[in-house]
Amino acid sequence: MKNGFLLSLLACLFAVPCLVAAEPTRVLIVVGPSTHPPGSHEVAAGGRLLQHCLENMSNVSDVAAEVVYEWPKDQSRLKSVSTIVFIGDTFPPQRLPETATILAQLDTLMARGCGIVCVHYATGLMGHDVGQAGEHPLLGWLGGYFANKSCPHHQSIAKIYPSAAITPATPEHPISRGWNEFMLHDEPYVNNYFGADQNRLASNVTALATSMLPTDSPKNETVAWCVERPDSGRGFGIVMPHFYKNWALADLRRFILNGIVWTAKRDVPDGGVQTTLPDLTTFSPAAVEFSEDPRKLARRIVQSAGGNANLLSRFAIEERLNVSDDPAKPGKPRESVFDGHENWWFRGGKGDWKKKKDEPATDLVWAWTLQALVDEKSKLKVLPEIEEAGRTLVGLQVSESISPAMDVYFEKTNLQIVRIDWRKDINRFSNWRQHDGAKYPSKCIGYRKATGKPWFVSEIVELRRLDELPGDLP
Fold first, then answer.
1. Exposure check for the chain: N or C terminus, fewer CB within 10 A?
2. Does the keyword Signal apply (predicted)?
3. DSSP letters along 47-114, please?
C-alpha cells in the first residue's frame, strides 16, 4: 500500500512539469545617443514603443523586454538575453563609452548565438569606426551595414523620399509573414554595404525588402535583410524608420517585430506578430510630427537654386505682362529694374522710367529671388505640407521683413519655388530657366483667392544682372 502511494505521488510530480514557470524570452533594447530634430529618429521613444509592443503581443507570449540607455555594467543582465535591439545615431556601441569593452562583450554574446537587430541609423558606421577595407564585426553579426559618407571603402546614400515603396523580397521567410508592400515618406538608406565581394550579399544573408531608389535613377535596393550566422545566432537589419510618425504603420511595425522575434529564435506566427499600439504620444517623444528647422530648410532651398552667391539682387528683366482674366491673351512689353528689396523702376516699351514707392509687388519679387529667405530680418516658419497637382509642396512663412506674412511653397522633390500665397492672391510659377548661375521660374500667373480666377500673367523674355544701375533712372 505504501509503495503504491509513493509511485502515485512520483507519477503526479513527473506529469506536471508545466507547473514550473518557463523563463521568458529576454530582449534587451539599447538606446544610443541621437542629435536629430524632434519628430525624427526619436530613439528613446522608439525604444519604449518596441518594449510595449513586444510585451503586448497577442500571439507570441512570454517575452520580457528591457530598455537601457547605456551599456549594462552588470554582466549578469546579459547572460540570458536572447536578442539585442540597437536604436540610435549610428551603431550605439561606437558612440557609447568604453567601445572596445562593449564590442568584446558583444563578441562573446554573438559567439553563444545571441541575436542582434539594428533599426535605421543604428545600422550605420562612420569612417573612423571601420578599417580601410570596411572591416568591422557588425558586418558578420548583422550581415551588412550603412556606410556613412565618411567611410573610406564605400558610401551609402541617405535621402528622404516623399513616397518610397517597400516591397517584400523573400515572401516565404518568417520575417515576411503578415505584411505587404507599403508606401512611406521616409529615409530608407540605399547602397548599403554587404561586403568586399562586389557588395553582393553573402550566402547566409537574405534580402527581406527592396525599394526602387533613388527616384531619379532607380535600382532595386536592399533596405532590410537578415543573416543566419555560423555561431547559430541571427541578425536583422532594417534602415527605417527615420520619422517617428511612421511607427504608426502596421506593416512596418509588424515587419520589425517579426525580425526581433525571429532573431530571438522564437516562431513567427503565420500571420506575423499581432499587437495593439496606443497613441504615439504615449511613449513621450519630443514630437510626433517632424518639423524641419526653418533656417536649415531655407539653406537647402537656396542651395538648390545655385547658392547665396548666385541669387538675384540687382537685375533687369524684359517681360510680357497681361493684366486680364484670360491667360492666353498676349502680354504687353514691360521693362523693369530691381535693386534689392525696395527699389523698383519700370517702363512700358521705351517710355520714361517710373519708380514705384511702397509697392507690394517688390516684396513678391524679393521673395521670388529667394533673398527674403536669407535676410537676417526675416522670421521664418515651416508650414504644413500641401498637395497640389499631384505634387507635395513644402512651405516657409516669411514675416517681419514682409508684412503681412507671406507663405512661399516649394516642390518637395527639387525645392523649386511653386507658389506664393500673399494678401488676396495665389501666385503660381513655372517655366524654369537658368542665367549666369541663377535658376528661376520665368512665368507667373496670379489668381484671386476669393474666386480662384486668374487676373495677370507675367512672362520674362530676358533677364540680365547689373553691375551698376542705368544712368537714366529717376
1. N
2. yes
3. HHHHHHHHHTBSSS--EEEEEESS--S-GGGTTTEEEEEEESSS-HHHHSSSHHHHHHHHHHHHHTT-
Q: Which helix (H) or strand (E) holds 446?
A: strand 438-448
**Residue with the three cell numbers 538608406:** 189
Q: How far apart are CA 368 and CA 312, in angstroms?
A: 9
* CA-closest candidate to residue 76, choices 138, 30, 32, 26: 26
Residue 60's pLDDT is what? Answer: 98
| Residues whose CB is less than 8 angstroms from the CB of residue 370 and which lie 6 or more positions away in sequence, other chains included | 301, 302, 305, 311, 417
φ, ψ of residue 386 to 5 degrees: the values are -130, 160
The span from the CA of 47 to the CA of 68, in Å, is 9
Amino acid at 183: M
Rounded Cα gap, residues 82 and 115, in angstroms:
6
- Contact in structure between 184 and 249 (CB atoms under 8 Å): yes
Determine the 3-state secondary structure of 6 from DSSP.
helix
Condensed to tens digits (0 to 9), the pLDDT of residues 254-300 reads 999 999 999 999 999 999 999 989 999 999 999 999 888 899 999 99
- Dihedral in degrees, nearest 10, Cα atoms 17, 18, 21, 23: 90
pLDDT of residue 16: 46
Q: Of 169, 173, 128, 124, which Cα lies nearest the Cα of 144? A: 124
CB 225 within 8 A of CB 201: yes
Task: With H, G, I as helix, E, B as strand and everything else as coil, classify residue 408.
Answer: strand
For 187-207, b where at least 16 C-beta lie within 10 A, e where not — what string?
bbbbbbbbbeeeeebeeebbb
Beta bridge partners of residue 336, listed in sequence order: 317, 346
Beta strands in 229-331 (DSSP E): 234-238, 314-322
Contact criterion met (CB below 8 Å) for 189 and 157: yes
- Rounded Cα–Cα distance for residues 4 and 456 (Å): 105
Q: How many helices (H) and strands (E) does the chain have?
A: 9, 22
Stretches in the chain below the pLDDT threshold 70: 1-22
Supply the DSSP symbol for 300: H
Phi, psi of 190 (to 5 degrees): -125, 170
pLDDT digits (tens, 9 = 90+) for 326-382: 999 999 999 999 999 989 999 987 789 999 878 899 999 999 999 999 999 999 999
What is the Cα–Cα distance from 243 to 236, expressed in whole angstroms?
20
Q: Which CATH superfamily is domain 294-465 in?
A: Lipoprotein localisation LolA/LolB/LppX (2.50.20.10)
Query: What ranges do the domains of the chain cover?
Result: 22-283, 294-465
End-to-end Cα, the chain, rounded Å: 126
Helices 43-55, 250-263: axis angle to 10 degrees equals 70
Range 22-283 has CATH code 3.40.50.880: yes
